[in-house]
Design goal:
Blueprint (H helix, E strand, L loop, with lengths): L32 H16 L5 E5 L1 H12 L6 E5 L6 H5 L4 H17 L2 H8 L2 H4 L5 H12 L3 H12 L14 E5 L9 H11 L6 E5 L7 H4 L1 H13 L6
Parallel strand pairs: 1-2, 2-3, 3-4
Length: about 240
Amino acid sequence: MAHLKGRAQTHVLTLAGAANQAAWQSDASHDSFTRTVEDQLADYIRVKGLVRPMIVGHSIGANIALEFAERYPDLVGKLVLVDALPFQARVWFNIDSVTLAKPLATATRLSIKYQSRARYEKFIRGPSTRSQVASDADFEKVVRWGLAADQSAVADTMYEVLTTDLRPQLGAFAAPTLVVETWAGTEGATRDQIEQEFHAQYAGLRRVKFAMSETGHHFVMLDEPDWFNRQIDQSLSDDTAAR
């Protein structure tokens, strides 16, 4: 945000259940959290009179941004998708269908949602979080973010993402898209394997570029802020994104 100050109008969106905000509650007309967020984002863009803005999302935010672009292609100018895949369950569970993902995602959801608070805090402070960022100071920051999120909201949102496969609809929009990849901190896979997975899953996009961070972990904007900001600058100025 500080990097773009004075050069671009920026809007920050906080999801329900994050940053000590109340969790979202489903109702008769909305039974999906991510789709509710997308509908609200569409309303926000229209009310604010924004003309095809660039949408930047990290992790689950990137999945929401991608599905938003598929559902509302006329409202999107460009996309920056940071370290997320259209079908996340493929790499989580080594499966390739939503049908197979659902029981595994359900178990993940229940495990997170109903564990004690002490056990949940231990999970947030555990090795899976530590691997997502390079420095100890930034690890403590990410832990604070994790503990400020509603436990049930985290479980429910993860379930939605893990049971959604966005690959079949990738050809529905032609917004120039930057996919930011990371591989540092990932156990059990090489750089080439991760890069191949990203390229394979985003193969349906018509106008996409990839940028692989060589040293940044999942929270690449913390690990490599200068490199990350250069990718944002390039996306803002690039009107010819292509494969």
